[in-house]
Amino acid sequence: MSLLQIRTDDSESPSDRYQRVIDQLAKIAQGTDSKKPDLIMLPEFWHGGAFNIEQSVSLATTFPGPISDDICDIAATHDVWIHAGSFVENFKGSLFNTSLLVDGQGHIAATYKKIHLFGFSEGESKHLTNGDELVCVATPLGMTALTTCYDLRFPELFRKLNEKGATSILMTSGWPVPRIEHWNVLTKARAIENQSIFIACNGVGTNGDTTLGGNSVVIDAWGKVLNEPTTIEEVIDVEIDLQNVNQVREKLPVLADRKL
How far is CA 221 from the centre of its chain? Predict the structure, then answer.
């Protein structure tokens, strides 16, 4: 699979960034004769900025809508799954932080409305409505859970996703530099404690006076990081062994020993 660690800077207009990313996404989806991803993943709020919430709100979309149409066209043209990151979605008059997953036929496979909104009394907590539904869907990675950024701090969410059969977890994120050590620890913890493949795509760049920390990671069910984390815009290609989860769970069946 491929992760696109996008740079979101306030110095670049959302329209310019959107077209730049869509063009890059199409190129990645096309692949080469020797390498083509099964699934591509993008960060949270890459269009408007995770820490420029007012701008992201001003770019609110619907699903289906013009953004999902573009993503679906790319997915269908190249037969690739795309987790397009998240966007502000206007749904029945309320605004949500919604991530979008499209299958290889160009159909919307799932959307996930972020349950844990960040900002306390400010930020997205002030402008958006939280979701309340867990989302798991069958993908080329097996039964796959969708999560977003601040969700990372709430381990009970991941236990519930584990109970729903998730063996892989996708997390789209706009996690900042000052708390990047928390990110590095908690992404590994969620993989280890749930014995699941954990794939977390974070942004880079500065928006709303906050710099994002990058360090996008693919972590196997044993807790091994399968890529070299960076803090620049780049495409991260990783081969994932789908047998890893079963092997780890059989070798160390801790989930069977849960008492609570």
Answer: 18
Does residue 251 carry a catalytic annotation?
no
For residue 149, indicate whether it is catalytic.
Answer: yes
Question: pLDDT for 168-184, tens place per residue?
Answer: 999 999 999 999 999 99
Per annotation, catalytic residue among 72, 136, 149, 201? 149
Which residue out of 44, 89, 124, 201 is catalytically annotated?
44
- Does this model's pTM top 0.85? My answer is yes
**What are the beta bridge partners of residue 170?**
146, 199
Query: Six-digit token pair at 106?
Result: 């160009």
Phi-psi region of 214 (alpha: psi -120 to 50; beta: other; left: phi over 0): left
Q: Is residue 233 flagged as an active site residue?
A: no
Please, how many CA atoms are within 13 Å of residue 100, restricted to the half-sphere of its CB?
Answer: 28
Cβ-count burial of 7 within 10 angstroms (0-12 exposed, 13-18 middle, 19+ buried)? buried
Catalytic residue selected from 72, 89, 113, 114: 114
Residue 122 banded pLDDT, cuts 50, 70, 90? confident
- Is pLDDT above 90 for 210? yes
User: Domains (ranges, CATH) in the chain?
Assistant: 2-257 (3.60.110.10)
Which tokens in the block code for residue 216?
Answer: 């996008």
Average of per-residue pLDDT across 94-122: 96
